[in-house]
Each structure stands twice: as structure tokens, then as C-alpha cells.
Amino acid sequence: MLEAAPRERARRPGVRVLTLCSLVLLTSSCTDPSPKKKPPAQPTEEVMGSKEPMLAPDAPSVRSAEDVTLPPIESWLGRGLQRSYLVEGVDGSQAFITIDDDTITLADMDAQLRAMPMPAVSHLGDPNGRVAFAEQTVGFELLAREGERLGLASSPKVMFAEIKALAGALRQKVVDGEFGQAPTTEEVQAYYAENAVRFNRAEERVAALITGPSLQDLEKLRENLLNEAPTATSARLELFEAAALAHSTHPSKIAAGRIPALPRASKDLPEPVLDALFALSPNELSAAMPMGDEFVLVMLVSTRPAQNRPFAEVEEMLRTQLLRSRAPALFNTLKEGWLAKSTCEAHPEALDGVIAPPTPVDFPSTLAAQPGQEQAVVVACGETTLTLELAIAALETWPARAQGEVLNGQSRQAFVERLTELATIAEEARRQGLADSRFVRLARKRGIVEALEKTLAVTRDPDSISEEEARERYVANVEAYHRAERRRMVELVVGSEKEAQKLRAELLTQAPEPNQARADALRALSAKLSIDPQVKRMKGSLPYLSAEPEPELAVPERLRQEAFALERYALSAPIELDGKWALVLVDGIREGVTVPFEQASASIRHALALEPAKKARADLLASLTKAHRIETHPEVLAGMNLPDIRHDH
User: Fold this and answer.
1) Considering the domain boundaries, does residue 337 fall inside one?
2) Residue 390's Cα: distance from chain center in Å?
């Protein structure tokens, strides 16, 4: 028997604003560099299954039962990269930034953008975002040059970052299909055929049913519904669903009568009932008719148009999907071959030279090598050597519990095996010419900048800052401790003023009281009828807005003004937006508040304590900027295929 359609639980999308500074450069250079205690990281599961590396050509792989809490090697390789943002045919050698005689090209920036989370990249669709990105990149490049001049490139964390990037770059070559595993046209066609239902779908109809044993009772119910809702609108559907919940004997009763979408060829309903369903328009009601041992009323809820996406339209998308689905298995197969040929030498006993706290409790713990043992070799693979200080840099990337297991000897062997595997992959990457790849150079620069900033991180003790000094800062910046009122709206976008007026009247009839039910009804209409794809996907929900324009939220100013003119749950008149028409209402208000000094005191002291480091960084950047010839060309980023995931009309 046909079951009820599951009701989708409404989810409110979370909005997290990510600054370009923290995400583009992926260093601490623009963020609060204060040390914060982090919770112990949970052990992660392996993303790609891995064969344990050999410690010597003839040594068997060993995995102890205790090493289950150790992170896999993928924790060092990092997440994969986004697809290239370079538009086909665009010259990647165009200058984005020039510093003296050196040029940072569009292709260089593509490497950086591919490593960034997409929310950060999306801000580059805006000209102001591109200008800010160029300025931040200049600062990053200047600091990397200065760190290199000061010899920080040879610091253990920078060297380990290079090794990780080498291994990651080799894995990315596999993901990008550079090992000959690209699917053939025949394979892609077969994949298309296997997934034909995704791309070729007959028209489907979503219906609601009311069944019962009495034809007379259903005819009377139909008459009442038509009297109460004489026009085929959403108001009639609401009444039908309420009646289904109260009277229907069909299993779909629990879903207010709704059943899954059905094609015309479906066998889930008798032929006469399907005939009636496909003869209806939305919100129209069939006559009562037999269905099995009972009788049924059918209402058409919505229509899903037929979809036909030919192979040529989706070929490249499917090729990429196949390629990426095969990459993990292929990488593991290749890795096994590299490990089988490996001539690496491992010296686990070198880890005896680590000085560590008796019980590591914080993450990451502060570890050090005993004087004179910093260059003791832990793993050596050709040109790739992991000394004790590099092994410490690797260990400090792991959670405290994993560090403790390694240092007390319980999982030492497994840790060295992980290092051996990493070194083997990095050495293969060198052999394939990846040592000077853009991704490796970028990782090296990041490590140098982080190392340089640590030399500038001279801070005051927050406890030494008096209440008077903290209060003086609070008074001088009291506006910073005021949170403005913010409002959230629900929006429906249609093609004409007439349609907007009609839907507004229906909505006020359906939900006459200004309450959450009206907001939910508008949200449901938006998910069904909005012609703006982004609005429809978000079910009409807009983020919380302030009264002042916010560059990171590309919301039309007319909507922002309406948000602060409407009472809560009051439905606006139709609003014209670039040839479209919108209905909106406010369904959430966060009152403006001012944080009192007592609550802000700790954060103020913390900020004051960091000011010496921030000033040192700003002064250094200012002097470096004066010492070099700098040109920026943010406009060239417009030639990239940058996503825009902001709410935009």
C-alpha cells in the first residue's frame, strides 16, 4: 500500500560570516593571535584506507591494538582542493600583484583560492572584496619575504609544512586525474545510463488523499470543502489537509494526506485515480470515487515538470564525479606500490630525545628536543629526512591523548610508521617534480609567516592591566560594545504585481492573525512558488539584517528598509525589485543591547594585552610596504569563475 510522504523537518540555515583575513591567507596574521585553550581533538577515522608503510624494505607492517586513537595520515595531507577557478581561455599569467620585479599571477592566486573554503571565495565576487583580498595578499607576501630573509624557512614547522604539502600535492594529482585514470566517454555514458533517473524524469504529481468507507460521507465532505474554499487556492489545500488528519483512513493521514510524487505510469494508485489526478490543476479536488474497498477524494498539491538533461549537458560533471569517486582507491593502490619500493630507514629510538610534560593535558602540548639531539634522524627517505625536531612538529599537530600514547611508548611504532608513510609519499612527489609546485610554495610561505608572527607576539599579562585602564578603553569605544537591533525576514518572489497581490490576499485569508503561523505559511509558499532560485532554495529565509548596509550581505536596500518599517508578522504590500515582485514579513527580532563593562572587562584586558604584538606587526608591514614597489590588479579576478553564495537578487 502507498505510504505517507515523510514530512521534511524545517531547518533554519546557519549563517557564519567568515573574514577574508582569516580564510584567504590561512594564517594568524589578521586574526586574534591570542593563545586559546582548545578542547582535546577527537580521533578521526581514515578517509582513505591505507596500507601501513614498511619501516625497512623487508620489515612487515605492524599495527598495534593501542594505536586506534592515532589520527590517520590524512590528518597531515589535509582536505582536498576545490576545482580550478580559472575560466578556460583566460590567461593565467596575468599579474595580480607585483612586488619589485616579482609577479604573483592569476594562476598563483588560483592555487590559493582552491585551498580556501568556498564561503571565503564567494566574497571575491564583489569588487570591494577583490580589493581587500589584494591588500591582504600583499601583506602576506611581504611578511613571507621578510621571514625568508630572517632565515625562518629552516624552522622545523616550516620544513614539516613543506613535507605535508608535497604529499598533499601528489594526492591532488590523483584527484585531478593526472595518473591516467580519467574515465572514457564510454564509461561516462554507462554512468549516465545507470543514473538516468537523475537526468530524465517524467512529469510527476504530488497529491493528497482522503479515504473512507462511505461514498456519501466523502461527497458531503467534498461539498463542505468547496463551500468553505470556493477557489482553488492554498487555503483549500489547508482545509483539505486538516480534513485528512481528522477523517482519512489512508496511511497518509499522518502526513495530512500527502503521498510521494507519482509519474503517470505509477502502479501505486489505481488507473482511474491516476487519471483523475493528472486531470486536475493545483488545489483542484476530484469527485469521490472507488479505490479498493473504500472511496477516495484526491487533491493535486503540485506538479513536478518533466526533466530531460541530455548526455552532452552533464558529461563533464559526470566525468568529474567518476574521477573523484575513483581517486581514493587509486591513491591507495599507488601508495602501496611506492611503499613496496621504499628504502626508507626508521629510527624510533630517536624519540627518546623528546622532552615532554609528564602528562600532556592541553592541545597542543609544548614539546622540545634535548639539547644536541635536534638533528637526530627519525625517518630518512632519499632527500626527505624527518629529524627529531620535525617529528616533534608533526606530533604537536595531534591531540594530547595521541601525543601521550606516542611519548609513553605505547604507540611509538605506529607514529613512526605514519611518518615513514608520509616521507615516502613526499619523496615520490619530489621525484615527480612537485617540490616547486604552487601548492608547496604556498604552504612554505604560510609556515614562514606563522613563524615570523610568533617572533612578534610579545604580549602583556592581562592580569597586570588595571581596572582604570580597562574602563578608560571601554568608555572610549562604548559603541563597539553595543549590539544593534537585527531583524530577520521571510520573502516570496514572483513575476508580477498582480500575482503578488493575489497571493497576499490568499495568505491573509489563510493566516489572518499576525503570528508565526503566517510566517510559516509564507515560507511554505516561497519554497513552492518563488521564481528566484536562491530564495526558493532557502524557503524564503533571509539572514538577520541590521538597519545599516552590510557589504557581506548583498540584500537590496529596499528590503532592508522594509524590515525596519514593518511590525512583526505584518505582511508587506508587493515590493518591486528589478522587475520582480516580493512579499516580505519580519519573523525574528533581536533587540539592540549594550554589553556592560563588567561583562566586557575580561575581553578588554585581553585586547589590551595583545596590542604590542598587533602594533609590531602593523609597524613591520608599514616599513616593508615603504621599502618595496607594489602594484595590485584586483580586477583580473573578475576573469575567474568565482562562486557567489550570498543572498543576492
Assistant:
1) yes
2) 31
**Cell numbers linked to 418:** 605514519
Per-residue cell: 489: 525576514
All cell numbers assigned to 328 = 581514493
Alpha-carbon span 260 to 242, nearest angstrom: 18
CA distance 262 to 277: 10
Identify whether 234 is part of a domain: yes
Q: What angle do CA 147, 120, 89 make, to 5 degrees?
A: 90
Rounded to the nearest 5°, which phi and psi values hold at 576?
-85, 130
Q: Give the pairing type, strands 345-346 and 307-308.
A: unpaired
Closest Cα partner for 117 from 645, 648, 647, 649? 645
User: Measuring CA to CA, how many Å separate 125 from each of 8, 224, 633?
Assistant: 33, 54, 15
Task: Answer yes or no: do 40 and 155 share one domain.
Answer: yes
Domain identity same for 451 and 519: no
Between the two ends of the chain, the Cα-to-Cα distance in Å is: 44
Cα angle 121, 123, 127 (rounded to 5 degrees) comes to: 120
| Domain match, 136 and 40 both | yes
Res 489 pLDDT > 60: yes
Helix (H) or strand (E) holding 377: strand 377-381
> Phi and psi of 262, rounded to 5°?
-125, 135
**297 and 366 part of one domain:** no
Q: Report the amino acid identity of residue 347.
A: H
- Residue identified by cell 508587506 is 572
Residue 47's contacts (CB-CB under 8 Å, 6 or more residues apart) are: 72, 74, 328
401 and 447 together in one domain: yes
**CA 455 → CA 157, 526, 609, distances in Å?**
14, 54, 16
Is residue 506 within 8 A of residue 525, CB to CB? The reply is no
Listed residue (239, 106, 147) closest to 632, CA to CA? 106
CB 294 within 8 A of CB 301: no
d(CA 634, CA 93): 14
Sequence-separated contacts (24+) of 7-10 with Cβ below 8 Å: 7/255, 7/258, 10/520, 10/523, 10/539
If one compares 390 and 638, the residue with the highest pLDDT of the two is 390
Q: Which structural domain, as residue segments, surrounds residue 491? A: 485-591
Residue 88 is predicted with a pLDDT of 79
Q: Dihedrals φ, ψ of 79, to 5°?
A: -75, 160
How many CB atoms neighbour CB 488 within 10 A? 18
The last residue of a domain, from among 305, 336, 361: 305
DSSP letter for 68, please. Answer: G
Question: What would you measure as the largest C-alpha separation in the chain, in angstroms?
Answer: 97
User: pLDDT (tens digit, 9 = 90+) per residue, 581-639?
Assistant: 999 999 989 888 888 999 889 889 988 988 888 888 999 999 999 999 999 999 998 87
pTM for the model: 0.59
Q: Per-residue DSSP letters for 325-355?
A: HHHHHHHHHHHHHHHHT---EE-GGGGGGEE
Q: Which residues in 613-644 are b (16+ Cβ under 10 Å) and which e?
A: beeebeebbeebeeeeebebebebbebbebee
